[in-house]
């Protein structure tokens, strides 16, 4: 591990996207970046699919062997609200990174510029506007009818003064070998955009922080039933949702598994924290999952990068 700058100031954004609206979600994100910038953070992190929102509970008319035209219309609306990497939305976010001097982690529904397939993706912008995109390796459950498996950008690493920053999206963190792939890259800032507002997830993030001897940045979101556009076709499904569809729970966990910040529930907010970057190295004394606490002569992970 290289020497790290001693303190990383993080602004962790827990906010509600503007569902199915790319322009409005981007506008809200830029406003939140400017709000966070007043506290001079080094890293600003947003939750899963912030642009154009995570359509929790929707089916888009899919059933076994069947589709509906109404569901197809809702899906097309979401498709049109998805972002093509490198286009205008990226330019605006790159400008924001340059303006604030911060690294910015933004999660979005990505539309492939050639094939049109959608991907559940995360991008990390650097202060000079450069960026790397990670596509979710395996969409979870019914997500698979909306987003495809990653075909590239498996484990891109952003090198920062505070060590490697890498993202796994939501339940990618339940893929044990994916976690090990990050540990092999020396991750110190483990960024997790997600929609997991259940208590079991709060246990998971502590385990991973301890296992990887890294900071776990748990970026969740608020979604209310009232957020869904009134003219979507799946009204019966949406009307059956609770008023608070996703409660949040964003927080930061240190390499000992302790809370740097308490989980934030049921409200929007920006969580600020100054991370002691001596801890990832200090913790390696007793445990390094891919170093002195490993048996490479017995166990080996081969990662096919693309």
Task: Tell me about this structure.
By secondary structure, the protein is an alpha/beta fold. It has one domain (7-285): Nitrilase/N-carbamoyl-D-aminoacid amidohydrolase, CATH 3.60.110.10. The protein is 24% helix and 26% strand. The chain is built from seven helices and 13 strands. The strands form two sheets. Strands 6, 7, 8, 9, 10, 11 and 12 form a seven-stranded mixed β-sheet that branches. Strands 5-4-3-2-1-13 form a six-stranded mixed β-sheet. Helix 1 packs parallel to helix 3. The longest helix has 16 residues, at 22-37. The chain starts with 6 loop residues before the first strand and ends in a 24-residue tail after the last helix. The model has no long low-confidence stretch (mean pLDDT 96).
* CATH third-tier fold name: Nitrilase/N-carbamoyl-D-aminoacid amidohydrolase
pLDDT averaged over residues? 96
CATH architecture descriptor: 4-Layer Sandwich
Spans of at least 5 consecutive residues whose pLDDT stays below 50 are none
CATH superfamily: Carbon-nitrogen hydrolase
Can you tell me the CATH class?
Alpha Beta
Please count the helical segments.
7
Beta-strand share of residues: 25-35%
What is the approximate shape? Answer: globular
Global structural class: alpha/beta
The oligomerization state is single chain
Secondary-structure element order, as H and E?
Answer: EHEHHEEEEEHEHEEHEEEH
Question: How many strand elements?
Answer: 13
Rg from alpha-carbon coordinates: 19 Å
Helix content: 10-25%
